[in-house]
Amino acid sequence: KPDYWWAFTYLDQDNIIADRKSPNASIYAWSSIDFMYDGYGRSLDAHTYIHETGHILGLPDYYDMQSESSIGALGGLDMMDFNIGDHNAYSKYMFNWVNPEIVKENKVVNLKPTSESGEFVILPTINYNGTPFAEYLMLEYLTPTALNEKDSHGYAGNNSAMYQEPGIRLTHVDSRIAKFSNITGDFIEYTDTLQLSKEVFTDIAHSNTPSLSSGKNNIFEQIRLIRQVGFETEFYSSQDDLFYEGDVFDIQEEKYANYFYYSGKFNNKESIKYKIKVNTLDSNYANISIEVGK
Predict the structure, then answer these.
(1) What does the DSSP assignment read for 74-97?
(2) What is the pTM of this model?
(3) Are 28 and 8 a contacting pair, CB within 8 Å?
């Protein structure tokens, strides 16, 4: 069947609950062997298989699945966006592979390359719950090394390339969980407590596909690249979107405030009081000043 020409992951809702005494298959992935040669010609190419494994482990697609013309939330350049480069730190944080440095007050941080070290920084909302499932800004030091190195030279599978020069990637994450009706599937309210009963279940409230995003405003995204050049007009991210020595993120600038539904505020309507300046970048670490306003 033509449907099987494309790779996919499937969740069998009827078999979603199991235990060791009653094992069953609830999620699986399919991919043609043709994808083994999709990106690098004669050499084996694992991109599609890594992407689908991400789904098996629970990650969503970070692009809008229902609009081919939409702007890529991460500009295409992520393993769960357009199958390129490494997984971002947020994805790894959900897997408990990495842990962030949480910054809530004025501080100068030395951030090692994220793909090599696992280091990244979270600038949280006031009532941050200490988990990936919250709203915050995230800083990563991206370098064309480790799992980004090969794709930085170009990936034919998507006719694109990972970033070729080291820089700071800034993203806005809204990974809050919420209660939903088990009967209608409707959003009820945000929560920090996992629940599963006949009446309710909990899940991440927001998605980069608007029709799958929930809450009062279904336009809230799960993760969004904040480009140094301002609000994007191109699908693919480019080198200019990262922050370099001397670059400053200041929410008072309209080009950054426009990234947020409530213009300069988090989705929970809390004011964004972080000012970020990249002081230096070298092969060992990025030196970044973070100021927190009153």
Answers:
(1) TTT-SHHHHS-SPPPHHHHHHTTS
(2) 0.89
(3) no
